Amino acid sequence: MTSKQIWKLLWILIFTWNGTVFAETIDDPCGGTSPLLNIVDRPTVGDSACVVPYKKAVLELGYQYQKLTHRAGYQQNFPEAELRIGLPGNNEFVLLFPNYIHQSIAPHSGFAATTLGIKHEIGYTKTWLGAIEALFTLPSGSTVFGNQDMGAAVNGIINYTFNPTFSLSFMLGVTTQTQSKLDGGQRFTSINPDMILTYVLNPKVNFYGEVYGQSKTGPGESSGFNFDGGVLYLPLPNLEVDFEVGQRINGNLGGFHHYIGAGMTIEFG
């Protein structure tokens, strides 16, 4: 079987699954009493399997303070801005704005690259929810922290709900990306697993723990894995605030030992 035939079969299975397995009339797992907590991507590295509803939009913002692995420096990055717009057909458009980075060691500051993409919610059952997304990182940003050439990522996202209290989300992606111009601009490809366990304390408070990694963290580098955890709070139906901590497990993924961060999400429409 050729690669073209494999891709054709995969799409047939996806659309068949979407039209039959998910055809039963059940409650939307992306809805409920606190839909914004189901929709938000932050502060996890893995994305939600839920898309933003049609004619609505969410703006996610955040801040991180990191202790770097090299030369005992620190780094701050913000505003971690992500705009997500709901589209027809269970789709959403995603725009990640350039992130500003400031650190105590040279080079001291600069901007990361711009990323845009689209996510499609495949469908759901009483316990399962699935989505796929494609992201494209533009050759943009500063010489220090940007990307030399175009990058891309394809992610599959599955969420399983054990009961009203616990759920498990798994994201598996493949990325191709380049270093910044300062670092040589070399391209590398990696496989990126991500697993998130969520505990729902009540309709307004969620706790989570996440382990994520990459098979390669750079050209000629080996794998890296990190852990993070935090809390999400919903003070208003259209406003979410969160706090997070992260810790390096091994490798050089992200270039930090540990970090703390905070952020918020606002829903419009």
Structural commentary:
The protein has 269 residues and is mainly beta. It is built from 2 helices and 15 strands. It has helices at 3-19, 35-39, and strands at 57-68, 74-78, 82-87, 91-96, 100-103, 109-111, 115-124, 128-137, 151-161, 166-178, 187-202, 205-214, 224-236, 239-250, 256-268. A 12-stranded antiparallel barrel has the order 1-3-4-7-8-9-10-11-12-13-14-15. It is globular, with a radius of gyration of 19 Å. The model is unreliable at 9-24 (pLDDT under 50).
Distance between the termini: 47 Å
What is the helix/strand order? HHEEEEEEEEEEEEEEE
Mean pLDDT: 91
Low-confidence stretches: 9-24
Largest β-sheet summary: 12 strands, antiparallel, barrel
Q: Count of DSSP E strands?
A: 15
Question: What value does the Rg take, in angstroms?
Answer: 19 Å
Shape: globular
Q: Strands of the largest sheet, in order across it?
A: 1-3-4-7-8-9-10-11-12-13-14-15
* Helical percentage: under 10%
Output the number of helix runs.
2
Portion in strands: over 45%
Structural class by SSE content: mainly beta
- Multimer state: single chain
SSE layout and pairings?
Blueprint: H1 3-19, H2 35-39, E1 57-68, E2 74-78, E3 82-87, E4 91-96, E5 100-103, E6 109-111, E7 115-124, E8 128-137, E9 151-161, E10 166-178, E11 187-202, E12 205-214, E13 224-236, E14 239-250, E15 256-268
Antiparallel strand pairs: 1-2, 1-3, 1-15, 2-5, 3-4, 4-7, 5-6, 7-8, 8-9, 9-10, 10-11, 11-12, 12-13, 13-14, 14-15
